[in-house]
Amino acid sequence: MIFGNVNNEFFEQQTGILPAPLKSALCFLKETDLAAHEPGRFDIELGGVPMVLQVLDLTTAPRQTLRPEIHRKNIDVQFLAAGGPERAGYYNDDKTSVVDEDLLDTPRDILFYKDNQDAPEGTIEMVPGTYAVYFPWDVHIPAIQTGDVPAAIRKIVIKVPMDACLGAERG
Protein backbone atom coordinates (compact mmCIF):
# COMPACT_ATOMS: atom_id res chain seq x y z
CA MET A 1 0.00 0.00 0.00
CA ILE A 2 1.10 3.55 -0.71
CA PHE A 3 -0.41 6.55 1.05
CA GLY A 4 0.09 10.25 0.31
CA ASN A 5 -1.40 13.58 -0.66
CA VAL A 6 -1.32 15.21 -4.09
CA ASN A 7 -0.50 18.53 -2.41
CA ASN A 8 2.60 17.17 -0.66
CA GLU A 9 5.80 19.00 -1.60
CA PHE A 10 7.39 15.63 -2.42
CA PHE A 11 4.63 14.50 -4.80
CA GLU A 12 6.94 14.56 -7.85
CA GLN A 13 9.56 12.41 -6.11
CA GLN A 14 6.91 10.07 -4.70
CA THR A 15 5.36 9.44 -8.10
CA GLY A 16 8.69 9.41 -9.93
CA ILE A 17 9.65 6.04 -8.49
CA LEU A 18 6.37 4.35 -9.41
CA PRO A 19 5.55 2.38 -12.55
CA ALA A 20 4.38 4.79 -15.27
CA PRO A 21 0.69 3.68 -15.16
CA LEU A 22 0.46 4.43 -11.43
CA LYS A 23 2.20 7.76 -11.88
CA SER A 24 -0.25 8.63 -14.68
CA ALA A 25 -3.22 7.81 -12.44
CA LEU A 26 -1.94 9.90 -9.54
CA CYS A 27 -1.02 12.85 -11.76
CA PHE A 28 -4.49 12.68 -13.34
CA LEU A 29 -6.02 12.93 -9.86
CA LYS A 30 -3.83 15.91 -9.00
CA GLU A 31 -4.49 17.75 -12.27
CA THR A 32 -8.21 17.01 -12.73
CA ASP A 33 -11.01 18.58 -10.68
CA LEU A 34 -13.19 15.56 -10.07
CA ALA A 35 -15.08 17.08 -7.14
CA ALA A 36 -17.56 18.53 -9.66
CA HIS A 37 -17.54 15.58 -12.10
CA GLU A 38 -20.73 13.60 -12.59
CA PRO A 39 -20.81 10.37 -10.58
CA GLY A 40 -20.51 7.05 -12.36
CA ARG A 41 -18.13 4.57 -13.95
CA PHE A 42 -16.06 5.67 -16.94
CA ASP A 43 -13.53 3.97 -19.21
CA ILE A 44 -10.45 6.17 -19.57
CA GLU A 45 -6.98 5.84 -21.01
CA LEU A 46 -3.95 7.29 -19.24
CA GLY A 47 -0.48 7.00 -20.72
CA GLY A 48 -1.78 4.54 -23.28
CA VAL A 49 -3.20 2.20 -20.61
CA PRO A 50 -6.96 1.53 -20.43
CA MET A 51 -8.25 2.13 -16.90
CA VAL A 52 -11.58 2.51 -15.13
CA LEU A 53 -12.53 5.74 -13.36
CA GLN A 54 -15.21 5.59 -10.68
CA VAL A 55 -16.66 8.79 -9.25
CA LEU A 56 -18.55 7.85 -6.10
CA ASP A 57 -20.68 9.85 -3.68
CA LEU A 58 -20.63 7.91 -0.42
CA THR A 59 -21.31 8.35 3.25
CA THR A 60 -18.80 7.03 5.77
CA ALA A 61 -20.08 4.36 8.15
CA PRO A 62 -18.99 2.62 11.36
CA ARG A 63 -16.18 0.11 10.79
CA GLN A 64 -18.21 -2.89 12.00
CA THR A 65 -20.75 -2.34 9.18
CA LEU A 66 -18.14 -2.51 6.38
CA ARG A 67 -16.60 -5.55 4.70
CA PRO A 68 -12.88 -5.88 3.93
CA GLU A 69 -12.23 -6.12 0.19
CA ILE A 70 -9.46 -7.02 -2.21
CA HIS A 71 -8.86 -7.02 -5.97
CA ARG A 72 -6.60 -9.32 -7.97
CA LYS A 73 -6.41 -7.94 -11.53
CA ASN A 74 -6.37 -4.24 -10.65
CA ILE A 75 -4.53 -1.87 -8.38
CA ASP A 76 -7.03 0.39 -6.62
CA VAL A 77 -6.01 4.04 -6.55
CA GLN A 78 -8.44 5.69 -4.13
CA PHE A 79 -8.62 9.46 -3.76
CA LEU A 80 -10.69 11.65 -1.48
CA ALA A 81 -11.78 14.56 -3.70
CA ALA A 82 -14.15 16.28 -1.26
CA GLY A 83 -15.91 15.88 2.06
CA GLY A 84 -14.83 13.72 4.91
CA PRO A 85 -12.84 13.06 6.84
CA GLU A 86 -12.61 9.37 6.03
CA ARG A 87 -10.69 6.62 7.74
CA ALA A 88 -9.47 3.63 5.72
CA GLY A 89 -8.43 0.29 7.16
CA TYR A 90 -5.89 -2.05 5.62
CA TYR A 91 -3.96 -5.24 6.26
CA ASN A 92 -1.89 -7.79 4.34
CA ASP A 93 -3.80 -10.65 2.72
CA ASP A 94 -2.29 -13.66 4.48
CA LYS A 95 -5.10 -15.99 3.30
CA THR A 96 -6.50 -16.46 6.85
CA SER A 97 -9.65 -14.41 6.24
CA VAL A 98 -12.91 -16.15 5.32
CA VAL A 99 -14.46 -15.25 1.97
CA ASP A 100 -17.89 -13.61 2.23
CA GLU A 101 -18.51 -12.89 -1.47
CA ASP A 102 -16.27 -13.67 -4.43
CA LEU A 103 -16.78 -11.49 -7.52
CA LEU A 104 -13.19 -11.72 -8.80
CA ASP A 105 -14.25 -13.31 -12.10
CA THR A 106 -16.67 -10.47 -12.86
CA PRO A 107 -15.87 -7.03 -14.29
CA ARG A 108 -15.89 -5.73 -10.69
CA ASP A 109 -12.77 -7.80 -9.81
CA ILE A 110 -13.62 -7.75 -6.10
CA LEU A 111 -13.64 -10.21 -3.25
CA PHE A 112 -15.22 -9.40 0.10
CA TYR A 113 -13.98 -11.04 3.27
CA LYS A 114 -15.92 -11.57 6.46
CA ASP A 115 -14.64 -9.39 9.24
CA ASN A 116 -11.44 -10.88 10.68
CA GLN A 117 -10.99 -9.79 14.28
CA ASP A 118 -7.48 -11.31 14.30
CA ALA A 119 -6.23 -9.33 11.30
CA PRO A 120 -3.52 -6.80 12.22
CA GLU A 121 -5.52 -3.93 10.77
CA GLY A 122 -3.95 -0.49 10.47
CA THR A 123 -5.75 2.71 9.57
CA ILE A 124 -5.02 5.90 7.71
CA GLU A 125 -6.85 9.21 7.89
CA MET A 126 -7.96 10.68 4.59
CA VAL A 127 -8.76 14.34 3.93
CA PRO A 128 -9.34 15.94 0.53
CA GLY A 129 -6.24 15.47 -1.62
CA THR A 130 -5.25 12.21 0.09
CA TYR A 131 -4.73 9.03 -1.91
CA ALA A 132 -4.18 5.38 -1.07
CA VAL A 133 -2.89 2.81 -3.55
CA TYR A 134 -3.96 -0.75 -2.78
CA PHE A 135 -2.17 -3.63 -4.49
CA PRO A 136 -3.67 -7.12 -4.97
CA TRP A 137 -2.20 -8.22 -1.62
CA ASP A 138 -3.64 -5.27 0.32
CA VAL A 139 -6.97 -5.95 1.98
CA HIS A 140 -8.71 -2.62 2.47
CA ILE A 141 -11.78 -1.18 4.14
CA PRO A 142 -12.66 2.25 2.72
CA ALA A 143 -15.24 4.79 3.89
CA ILE A 144 -14.93 4.29 7.65
CA GLN A 145 -16.39 7.17 9.63
CA THR A 146 -14.23 9.08 12.06
CA GLY A 147 -15.86 9.99 15.34
CA ASP A 148 -19.58 9.58 16.00
CA VAL A 149 -21.04 11.20 12.90
CA PRO A 150 -21.04 9.85 9.32
CA ALA A 151 -19.62 12.20 6.68
CA ALA A 152 -20.45 12.67 3.01
CA ILE A 153 -17.47 12.02 0.75
CA ARG A 154 -16.66 12.27 -2.95
CA LYS A 155 -14.42 9.27 -3.53
CA ILE A 156 -12.54 8.74 -6.79
CA VAL A 157 -11.22 5.29 -7.66
CA ILE A 158 -8.98 4.53 -10.62
CA LYS A 159 -8.57 0.85 -11.45
CA VAL A 160 -5.05 0.39 -12.84
CA PRO A 161 -4.43 -3.03 -14.42
CA MET A 162 -1.76 -4.88 -12.46
CA ASP A 163 -0.40 -6.35 -15.71
CA ALA A 164 0.30 -2.83 -17.04
CA CYS A 165 2.59 -2.15 -14.06
CA LEU A 166 4.60 -5.34 -14.22
CA GLY A 167 7.75 -4.55 -16.13
CA ALA A 168 6.59 -0.97 -16.81
CA GLU A 169 9.10 1.85 -16.87
CA ARG A 170 9.34 4.02 -13.78
CA GLY A 171 7.64 7.44 -13.82
CATH topology: Jelly Rolls
Tell me the count of domains.
1
Q: Helical percent range? A: 10-25%
Largest sheet: 6 strands, antiparallel
The outline comes out as: globular
- Structural class computed from helices and strand pairing: mainly beta
| Radius of gyration, CA atoms, in whole angstroms | 15 Å
Strands ordered across the widest β-sheet:
1-10-5-12-3-2
Q: SSE order in H/E notation?
A: EHHEEEEEEEEEEEH
Parts with pLDDT < 50 across at least 5 consecutive residues: none
Corresponding CATH superfamily: YhcH/YjgK/YiaL
Average pLDDT, rounded to a whole number, is: 95
Number of E-state strands: 12
Determine the N-to-C terminus distance.
17 Å
Number of helices: 3
User: Proportion of β residues?
Assistant: over 45%
Which second-level CATH architecture applies? Sandwich
Q: What is the level 1 CATH name? A: Mainly Beta
Question: Explain this structure to me?
Answer:
The protein is mainly β and 171 residues long. It has one domain: Sandwich (Jelly Rolls), CATH 2.60.120. Helices cover 13% and strands 45% of the residues. It is built from 3 helices and 12 strands; from the N terminus they run βααβββββββββββα. It has helices spanning 11-16, 20-31, 162-165; strands at 2-5, 40-46, 49-59, 69-70, 74-83, 86-92, 99-103, 110-113, 122-126, 130-134, 138-144, 152-161. The strands form 3 sheets. Strands 1-10-5-12-3-2 form a 6-stranded antiparallel sheet. Strands 4-8-7 form a 3-stranded antiparallel sheet, with no helix packed on it. β2 and β3 form a beta hairpin. It is globular and about 40 Å long. The two termini are 17 Å apart.
